[in-house]
Amino acid sequence: MTVAVIQFGGSNCDRDTVQALETLGFDAELAWHEDGLPADTTGIVLPGGFSYGDYLRAGAMAARSPIMDEVREAADEGMPVLGICNGAQIGCEASLTPGAFTINRSARFQCEHVSLRVENAETPWTAHYEEGEIVEFPIAHGEGRFEIEDDHLDRLEDEDRILFRYCDENGEITDEANPNGSKHNVAGVTGESDHIAVMMPHPERVSLADLGGTDGQGVLRGFGDA
Amino acid sequence: MSEFTATVTVRLKQGVLDPEAETTQRALERLGFELGDLRSADQFEIDLDAADEDSATERVTEMTERLLANPTLHDYDITVEEQ
Residue ranges per domain, chain A? Predict the structure, then answer.
């Protein structure tokens, strides 16, 4: 029984994620991508970082590494999978989730706190929040703009697969509150089934009270419910 | 078998924002150039041995669809020349 946090060359939020999960009482361990998933894996995190130097497109190389076949197989069997930041880019590149995260509207790397509105509180990742609740998470990315064909976005919205949207402090979904130009302010989505999810903001960075907030704990607690 | 060089050009689909191209265009305009629009694209040159041009094109198309282009973001075109 362990949440495997997969390390690729260039992952850099892997240890933080293990620390945050352990603080919440989960068993968690680092899994180097070449070693495959530990036998007792019950959940998977694709962590943040800059796998393979973001060559070609952020996440493109890691998405095609052999361990991702194991991740896909585990996800198909119902194992919870969460991609955070670079892990979200990897998840989309690997088609675990729809769309793509690409270069910010500003063409710059952005590292700041943002407000998010919980759009669907009935997924494992958002069940600890209320629908419409406003939470504060940090972002740290250069390629976080959610891009997707319009008809696919319609489908995602119809199927209630948006986890969070960027909002202002009052919960309004405005262009000014959209840090990276994501379509319809989307910050995180689920796969075909809601036990698979990706998001650009970092829940693990707001999971310890001593480090500035605990709003992110609810997302990580998804491993207990999924 | 013959030697071929394939040139793969990967472009953003029409309507997909290109912040780097916009920044580049603004820099050119600051330098005093007048231009209507600027688009960027990635180009890959791939040398390979293949029985004929069709089989070279087929293999490079597969490479492009599996890695070089992301279908959510990109269109691509491929030209193949025998060396």
Answer: 2-225
